[in-house]
Specification:
Keywords: Methyltransferase, Transferase. By secondary structure, this protein is of the alpha/beta class. It has helices at about 25-40, 55-65, 75-90, 100-105, 125-135; strands at about 1-5, 15, 45-50, 70-75, 95-100, 115-120, 140-155, 165-175, 175-180. The protein is about 30% helix and about 30% strand. The protein has five helices and nine strands.
């Protein structure tokens, strides 16, 4: 069962789409958010959750004090699960978009994101992920002190970062690798 780990909605269960998703385990989510809270990257943040699945990452951020969350997934079942989860948790500051991540980031709203959580299916290719990251690097998409977190298979290559972005840290949890990135070129 997938649940919110901590915060105002801590312990509440999340609906997971029937197919096409690989939810981030509670253990990995707890580790990610412990680091992000240590960095001060969650409180009052505008959060973008790409390849959202159930919305667990973005909703976890809201539970821990983020200001808003936008959950993006191309699959209808995932988008419906995100909407139901946001309603069940009582979060009003959630936007859900049914779009491929590449299209959403290409046409990203002009609100700069403070925290971007990217957890694509493992079969998303490195060039496709690199395109999403390059589009996030466009002027005005990210706040000056933003943090980007990318979750990938430990068997795959390290994400290709846009020029000027800095890989602050890579953590491995079994089959999952988590990359913490500073887009502004200053390590956290």
């Amino acid at each position: 069962m997938t649940r919110i780990v901590a915060g105002t909605a801590g312990g509440l269960a999340l609906e997971v789409p029937v197919k096409g998703t690989r939810p981030t385990s509670d253990r990995v989510r707890e580790a990610i958010f412990s680091r992000l809270e240590h960095l001060g990257a969650v409180e009052d943040a505008r959060v973008l959750d790409l390849y959202a699945g159930s919305g667990a990452l973005g909703l976890e951020a809201l539970s821990r004090g983020a200001r808003t969350a936008t959950l993006v997934d191309a699959a209808r079942g995932a988008v419906e699960a995100c909407r139901r989860n946001a309603r069940a948790l009582g979060f009003a500051d959630v936007r859900v978009a049914q779009l491929p991540a590449e299209r959403f980031t290409r046409d990203a709203p002009t609100v700069p994101w403070d925290l971007v959580l990217i957890d694509p299916p493992y079969d998303v290719t490195e060039p496709d992920l690199a395109l999403v990251l390059r589009q996030l690097a466009a002027d005005g998409v990210l706040a000056d002190d933003s943090t980007v977190v990318v979750e990938r298979s430990s068997r795959g290559p390290e994400p290709t970062l846009p020029d000027g972005w800095v890989l602050d840290e890579r953590k491995q949890y079994g089959e999952t690798s988590v990359y913490y990135v500073s887009p502004g070129g200053t390590a956290a």
